[in-house]
Every structure is written in C-alpha cells, then in structure tokens.
Design a protein that fits this description.
Layout lengths: L1 E6 L2 H4 L12 E6 L11 H9 L3 H8 L9 E5 L2 H7 L6 E6 L8 H17 L4 E5 L4 H12 L18 E6 L4 H25 L7 H9 L6 E6 L1 H6 L3 H7 L7 E7 L7 E13 L8 H4 L7 H16 L4 E12 L11 E3 L5 E3 L7 H13 L5 E6 L3 H7 L3 E6 L2 H14 L2 E4 L17 E2 L8 H10 L13 E6 L5 E2 L9 E2 L4 H10 L1
Helix pairs in contact: 5-6, 6-7, 7-12, 10-13, 12-17, 13-16, 15-17
Length: about 525
C-alpha cells in the first residue's frame, strides 16, 4: 500500500481542480455523532454537499445515519456528480462515524479507520482520499494493519478481488514532519505484519533454521546477528534449552540480534522471544486438537525478529537493544527428554522435568540466563507460555508479570497507547512452593491447576541474573501472549488470526526512552 501526502485544502479547491489533481476512487468524510436538533457538520461535508445539491444530507436522512463510532455509509456518484466535484475518478463517497466528540479517543479513531478500510475493500476500491482526523500516524498504521491478509498458499484468489493500493492523505501543509510520521508508522506497521507472516506460516516452513535465516536478513551498520549452533550451546552448558531440542531432527538455533546505537547509551534493553517452532508436547503428548495450532508457539520469536527489523530502520538514539531467540522444536522420539529427567541450566540450577509440555520456560531459562551476562538494564521476555493465561484473561489480553513495577507500568502505558490489551498478574511468594522439587532445585511444572500462568513466570524469574556489583536482580518483565498472539475474531486494528502482539507496544516503549 502506498501513502501519498498531498498538499490540498479540499474545501478551497473544489471547483478549481483539474481532472488529474484528484485521482482517488473514493473520498472519505469523517464526522462526529450529530445532535439531531442542532447538527454541526464539518466544512468539508458542507462544501461537498453543496456541490452535490444536498445529496449527502438527503442520504444521511434517508438512511438515518448517525455517525456512531465505526459506522459507515457508502454514497455512489454518477458521472454528472463527479463532474460537479471535478473528481472524475471518484466513484464513491464514504461517510465514517467517529462517535460522540466528548468521548473521542484513540480507540474510537482506530475503530473508525478500521471500518473505512474494511468498507473500501468490500467495495472493491483501489484507493481512497482522507484528511487525517487527529493522529496521522494512527491513520497510516491502522490502515496497513487492517488491510493485512495472508494469502500465500491460496491457489485460487477470490474473483474480482482488488487490493487497496493507495491512500491519498490530504493536508494543508504536507510538511516534512508529517512525511516523517508517515514513514515511521509504515515501518512499525510493516514490522507487525512481518511477525504475523511468520506466525501464519506452517511449522514445516518455519523451523529453527528458517528463523535464523530471517534474523540474518536484518541488516544495518550498527546491528549484528549471531547464531549459536548446538555445539556452541553445549559449551555454554545450556542444558535446559538443549533438553527440549533432543526429540527433534531439526537442529536448534540460538539467535542473538544486537543493535548498538552511535553515541551515548541511556539504556540497554534485552528482548527474549520464545521460539518453539512446533510444540507437540514432547513425550507428554498434547491431544490432537490442542496440537493443531502449535505452529504459533514461536510468536514471541516472531515478535522479536519484527521488533529488531524495525529497530534497524528506525535507529533509535541512546537505546541499545538485544534480541534473543532460543529456537527449537519440541517433539517426541527415542531421543526425547523424559518426565523425571533432571537437567542443568546455564546458571547452574537443576530442574526436575515433570512435564515435557512445559517446555517454553525451559528454553527461556537459558535464554534469560545468557542475556543476563550481557548486563542489560531490562529484560523483557515474550512467550506463548501457558493455557492458564488464556483461562484467566481470554484471547484478547496478554498477562504481565514482573520484579519491577515501574518497568511494567511503562510498558503497559505503551500497550494502552497502541490498543494492545495487557493486564498484570501477581507473583506472590506463596506460589513459589509449587516449584519445589524433592531431588532438584526446581520442577518445571508445578501449579497443580492453580495460578499456572504465574507458576511459569516465577520459574523464568529464577534464571534472571543480578545487576553488576549488586545482589539485586536485573529488572524483568514477562509478557504471556498465549491468548492474543492469535485472534479468533477481527479486532479494531487486526484481522482474524496472527496479531503481531506485542511488536507495537515494545517499539512504542523503546522509542519513548
């Protein structure tokens, strides 16, 4: 999709446009919900309506259209009406409701943009023109996110399907700042779609080696990608991560993506994404239905690659970012690790395995222990970790757990800005009792059906390192995306399916530093 910023005050230009000056197939007019007794429509609506001899006003009366948030009304134009507007290519005007002005917020703005994009696509239009309501970046980002479709494996595309090709953004200034906002929004939205693509792909394509290749595609002068092979991980004594990989014929790949900005570094953030490219449950085999969507168990890894892709382009000043992915499959075989095995993680802690389907936390244990040696200021891990989090929060909300409340609040504020739902779950000391083993330091699955999401979070916390010259742990945030990594229904900013959460939240946070 192409975004064109055009310096054009439409209200002043009507009647003096050349045929080539306005090429969009549809014109979008947004309005707040109207007081029926005292309507207050915009000057753009009034100007266009006057040139159409009251056609717009007649249409909203006949359809009882009230401009409620996300409500749309399509008005077709005949050749004479197009001539009157000097818009020969404009087949339709689409009215979009913003809801009540007093309640207007980013959520309503997103909802309105999503509605208009879906309506334009339903009408099989290639382009639309619009004046940004309030947030230019939000318009661009939402349009890209809502337009997204994964059709790679469709052999028979829908008949007469038309892709949305161009958005013409009308501006009175078309300033350099506006162009910069558009460019930044495109990078962030396209990165989110990159994560979606990786999650949509089948596990026969997205193997640990595939993720390593995708990471190596990220290129920038101040960014490096390193892939540790099995032998490298053995030298580092990553017994927890490697145990999960034993049952698979696919070799594990431990991926490190490092961005170091020029100049003074204010903060070093480590992002650790769970990268289990297919989770059968191992010898603790999942039921067939539960295994069906386990290609999505690498959503944290997909988000990490997407964030680092955007970072390579955005080049944030003052923030060092390290992305870590311990990629592997979790498969059953004669080589697979077993319930009852005792394994040793990189930091020396021993783990009694009582469920091979609690494998994500085992891969993350070595991943966070490894990145702790890099002395980051903050570690944020992203994982499709527990079905218990879906039970607690549903599939539209991620669970947050932390050892640093201030860090959680900062990331949660970014999530709210981006429209990504997140909620804090407590890590009470009482839950630690469930992690105790009779023969090792920890067991890997000990919730007994209670507080399962927190049990997983507390397990990972055991492997977070300490700050230099301190007994205090490195600041850490765990984001359990088991639910919202895949939407069962379309959302204001996302189609059904892979969501790309929490790419925008993390980028928003990093760029705010």
């Amino acid at each position: 999709m192409k975004f064109t910023l055009k310096k054009l005050d439409l209200e002043k230009s009507l009647g003096s446009l050349k045929k080539s000056a306005f090429t969009a197939e549809s014109l979008i007019i947004t309005e707040f919900e109207q007081d029926k007794k005292k309507p207050s429509l915009s000057s753009l609506f009034t100007c266009v309506d006057k040139r159409l001899n009251g056609y717009l006003a007649d249409s909203i009366r006949e359809e009882e259209f009230e401009f409620k948030a996300g409500e749309t009304l399509v008005i077709k134009l005949n050749s004479a009406e197009r001539f009157n507007l000097d818009m020969q290519n404009t087949k339709k005007i689409i009215l979009v409701g913003l809801g009540e002005e007093k309640d207007f917020n980013k959520k309503n703005e997103r909802k309105a943009i999503a509605s208009l994009v879906r309506k334009v696509k339903a009408e099989k239009l290639k382009s639309f023109a619009i004046k940004a309501v309030k947030d230019l970046a939000l318009l661009v980002e939402t349009a890209i996110l809502v337009d997204y479709e994964f059709t790679k494996y469709k052999t028979e595309p829908k008949k007469d399907k038309k892709e949305l090709e161009e958005v013409l953004i009308l501006s009175e200034t078309a300033s350099a700042k506006e162009k910069e906002l558009i460019s930044k929004a495109e990078i962030i939205a396209n990165a989110t779609n990159k994560a979606r693509d990786l999650v949509w792909e089948p596990a026969c394509v997205v193997t640990p080696s595939y993720l390593a290749k995708e990471a190596k595609k990220i290129k920038a002068e101040n960014l490096t990608v390193k892939v540790l092979e099995k032998a490298d991980c053995e030298k580092l004594k990553m017994g927890s991560y490697l145990a999960v990989s034993l049952g698979s014929d696919e070799p594990p790949k431990f991926i490190e993506i490092s961005y170091v900005p020029k100049g003074k570094i204010k903060k070093h953030i480590a992002i650790v994404g769970k990268g289990v490219t297919f989770d059968s449950g191992g010898l603790s085999l999942k039921p067939a239905k539960a295994m069906e969507m386990m290609k999505e168990d690498m959503s944290g890894a997909a988000a990490t690659i997407a964030v680092m892709t955007a970072i390579s382009q955005l080049q944030p000043a003052g923030v060092q970012v390290t992305g870590i992915i311990a990629a592997t499959e979790n498969m059953p075989s004669g080589k697979a690790y077993r319930p009852g095995d005792v394994i040793t993680a990189m930091n020396g802690k021993t783990i009694e395995v009582n469920n091979t389907d609690a494998e994500g936390r085992l891969t993350l244990a070595d991943a966070v222990a490894y990145v702790s040696t890099k002395n980051p200021d903050e570690i944020i891990d992203i994982a499709t970790l527990t079905g218990a989090c879906i039970t607690a929060l549903g599939n539209v909300c991620a669970g947050l757990m932390t050892n640093d409340q201030a860090l959680l609040e900062r990331v949660k504020a970014s999530a709210e800005e981006q429209g990504e739902r997140m909620w804090q779950l407590p890590l009470y000391d009482e839950y630690k009792e469930k992690l105790k083993s009779s023969i090792a330091d920890l067991i890997n699955a000990g919730s007994g059906g209670q507080a399962g999401a927190q049990n997983g979070g507390l397990f990972i916390k055991e492997f977070i390192g300490k700050k230099p010259r301190s007994e205090e742990q490195i600041s850490w945030l765990h984001i359990d995306i088991a639910g919202p990594c895949w939407f069962e229904d379309a959302q204001d900013w996302s189609p059904k399916g892979a969501s790309g959460i929490p790419v925008r939240t993390l980028l928003g946070y990093i760029l705010s530093i």
